[in-house]
């Protein structure tokens, strides 16, 4: 958390109590969370119950590289590599919601090369793969045996 606050200070931002708690909630979950799910937790702890409370904190964290927005799920997750300028790929378990963050540079580079061959200029890429985490895959295999 101190590293996150330091990163914000370098960028001219400030880690307010609601932003800090929002980041802590994301870090504790180990999965993507919707804004209303975060809002419920914030409200239960006395941070307010209006949607802008959560949305402002989440967008601030995304804008400052401390969280990611997952388009497919319309949800947010803590960045596992803050301080590194990156746009990762995500593996999302469709059963339990576990989230894995992976480096996506090789995939992005290959896609940019292929697009360039057609004259297309890629401006933004979101890589989100849906599947089963090892635990859920094993449970599914074990249940079928």
Automatic annotation (TrEMBL):
Keyword Cell cycle in record: no
Origin superkingdom: Bacteria
Chain residues that bind Zn(2+): 93, 96, 133, 136
Pfam family, one: FUR
Co-factor: note: Binds 1 zinc ion per subunit. Binds 1 Mn(2+) or Fe(2+) ion per subunit.
Swiss-Prot/TrEMBL GO biological process terms: negative regulation of DNA-templated transcription; regulation of secondary metabolite biosynthetic process
Listed SUPFAM superfamilies: Winged helix' DNA-binding domain (SSF46785)
Cellular-component GO terms for this entry: cytosol
Localization in the cell: Cytoplasm
Cofactor requirements of the protein: Zn(2+); Mn(2+); Fe(2+)
Family (UniProt): Belongs to the Fur family.
PANTHER family found in the cross-reference section: ZINC UPTAKE REGULATION PROTEIN (PTHR33202:SF6)
Official protein name in the record: Ferric uptake regulation protein
Species of the source: Paracoccus lichenicola
Designated gene of the protein: fur
